[in-house]
Amino acid sequence: MNPTELQNLIDWLIDGARSATSPPRMVADLCERLVQAGLPLWRVGLFVRTLHPDVLGRNFIWRPGAEVVTGSADHDFLDSPEFINSPLAIVFGEGREVRHRVRDPGARRFPFFDDMCAEGVTDYVALPLLCTDGSVHASSWTTKQPGGFNDEQLNALRSLVRPLARLVEIVTLRRTASILLDTYVGNRAGEKILGGQIRRGHTDTMDAAIWLSDLRGFTALSDRLPAETVVDILNLYFDCQVSAIRAHGGEVLKFMGDGLLAVFPISEADGNSQQVCSRVLEAARESRTSVAAMNYPIGEAVERFRFGVALHVGKILYGNIGGGNRLDFTCIGPAVNLAARLEKIAGRLSRTIVASEGFAGICSGGWAELGEFPIAGFSKAERVYGLTDET
Predict the structure, then answer these.
(1) pLDDT tens digits, residue range 57-97?
(2) Which of 86, 142, 289, 322 is 20 to 30 Å apart from 330, CA to CA?
(3) pLDDT at position 198
(4) Which domains occur in the chain, in start order?
(5) Cα dihedral 243, 246, 248, 252 sign
(6) pLDDT in tens, 294-311
(7) Are 289 and 167 in contact (CB under 8 A)?
């Protein structure tokens, strides 16, 4: 392999592979440059661990003349025979290189090599990508060259993995920050925080439909069931809402015990708020169905569940609020306070979905007026509406 071309490729990685617009493009550019420099690659894999509640990591698989194939694995993958009986288990577990010519007797203990042999692969090397924090990612490199990789080619790959590891670590840290912010504060809030909106008092005003819900009888439930069971129930209960909220354009801002606060932003591009509020109501109906179907076996009994959700529309203050060096990215304002009061009224009326006059007036959905109620902290009473398909 040409030493000058190899050094140019190392410099490209150290400089951040700036010409590559995405991780799959970076993998493709790296492999194509290596082939052009004289390295006879066939299948190349990059395996990157990530910090995510559902996803263990991502993989990128390159073959000549094909698009890079991306995939992901969940946390159960670590216990699967596919992983346990693979060279990557050694790389991740021990942080060391694994090299086998595919037809060597010692390679037969890895079922993966049967597939490689069928493709005509002659040699395989898996190299760890060691990060500065001690974590390990992995890369695998194969060739169809008769006799496998020679020493010069192996040394070229080994010289690449250190700058590649630094680049992967930087990209992974950025992605991890984005994932964690998305997981804990929501997508839009995460984007604003990463964009620099991190100072206390840095807020925006936003028009939004507001969703505030809670689980009926949660206090009594918590008192008579083990804490672990209550957590399981809450997770199932929140699943019934979050998927519907996100599918219809909403963002969950906060879980408060059994309570959930979500917003559905109304932008100027929406023209008027009717379309947004219609999506909110559809999400509420879907959540109502999901919670009604939810059950949890406890001993010989089966728990059934009900919840209530209040819907309102108005202006909210959206941004950083807190004290000292502890901030929360949330929304406040009279509209949020009114939604919270309406949710309590829904509980008193044994209603699942209630709405303010402002929301019901925008969103036609079969509403019936439930009465006019005084609202604590507000000078005027509020007309409250419920769906006609509830009694």
Answers:
(1) 999 999 999 999 999 999 999 999 999 999 999 999 999 99
(2) 289
(3) 64
(4) 3-184 (3.30.450.40), 197-387 (3.30.70.1230)
(5) positive
(6) 988 877 667 788 899 999
(7) no
pTM: 0.72
Q: 127 vs 15, 36, 44, 79, 94, CA distance in Å?
A: 21, 21, 11, 21, 11
Structure tokens, 291: 């919670």
Q: Tell me what the pLDDT averaged over the chain comes to.
A: 89
Is residue 119 scored above 60 in pLDDT?
Answer: yes
Would you list the DSSP string of 212-257?
Answer: EEEETTHHHHHHHS-HHHHHHHHHHHHHHHHHHHHHTT-EEEEEET
CB 313 within 8 A of CB 266: yes
Report the alpha-carbon distance of residue 52 to residue 183 in Å, rounded: 8
Alpha-carbon distances of 33 from 5, 63, 146, 222, rounded to whole Å? 9, 13, 21, 60
* 8 Å CB contact between 168 and 137: yes
Distances (CA, A) of 134 to 95, 164, 176: 10, 15, 16
* DSSP code, position 109: G
Nearest-CA neighbor of 313 among 275, 351, 349?
275
What angle, 0 to 180 degrees and rounded to 10, lies between the N-to-C axes of helices 151-185 and 23-36? 170
pLDDT in tens, 350-380: 899 999 999 999 987 789 999 999 888 888 8
Taken in order 361, 363, 368, 374, the sign of the CA dihedral is: negative
